User: Fold Iron-uptake system permease protein FeuB from Aeoliella mucimassa.
Amino acid sequence: MPTSNAHPTVASRIAMNWTTVPLGLLAMLLGIGMFLLVGDVSIDARTTFDALFAHDSQQTAHVLIRDWRLPRAIADLLVGASLAIAGAIMQSMTRNPLASPGIMGLNTGASFATIVAVVTAPTIGRPGLMVAAVAGATLGAALVYGIGSLSRGGLTPVRLALTGVAVSTLLGSIGSGVMIYFELGQDLTLWYARGTQNVQWDDVAMLLPLFAIGLVGSLALAPTLSVLALGEEVARSLGQRTMLAKLAGTVIVLMLAGGSVAVAGSVGFVGLMVPHIVRMLVGHDQRVVLPMAALSGGLFLLAADIVARLATSPYRAAVPVSVVTSLLGVPFFLYLACRRNASARGGTL
Assistant:
């Protein structure tokens, strides 16, 4: 009897959460509308509507809305969704609640590689920066897992996270030193932590295909990820090809994280917080977690950017969205690390 009662519960949960997708899309539209209205230059709703549906390139407000605010809002949604999906996949594959692109060195590795690419090939275009970012994300992840595996006692979630923080700090410091030494200027410095400031339609067009491929790939991988979360031995006993699934998941994570950094610089903690919050709300079935993480991640970063812009407005100084995500993410990370360490009952890091 208990077994027969469990299946309707799971099915009803999946059905219930899929009905939230239209609500999430509506929230996205409302969020974009709010984003277009707020900022250091206030624009009324009527002008915003005209800028979208009766665009006049001779009017400054129309250009501001359509060519600057709208692509930035869409980039927030794409970057937030990409990082949330990447974090959810990493946490599922590694069974590590502290895994995320920012913590595991992917974001900083991608940023570092992009800086090196600009130094060595000043005329490199957007596609070249995207390739460099993905390669850098791969380097960052390899360093974290390689160094972490050298420690006595093997890879534990907390030790891996601490290694990730150390590698991120090292790569970030080297990247800053390279920018100063080669006098790369304020533009690249601002890009390094800019978030989606100054994102244009070309950036959106570059990220959109990667996000679409990553989303479709993650959804196709979702059933296997749900089984992997139970343990690799369990997955193998159920006939899952675990190595192939991990390889596909790793490629998706690197593509989404690298693409996000190439467009928006290093935006931390989205991939850590959002998957945890989603799982608390919808459970652990990756068929539901991944699309909900995409919706929630996009909304989260859009809301964080709105907060950053409201904080910017009175002082006319740009506040990067990464500042807002860090203010929320650092306490969340410490909470997860302390809870994980306490659950280990005094085990060594």
User: Anything to note?
Assistant: The first helix runs from residue 2 to 18.
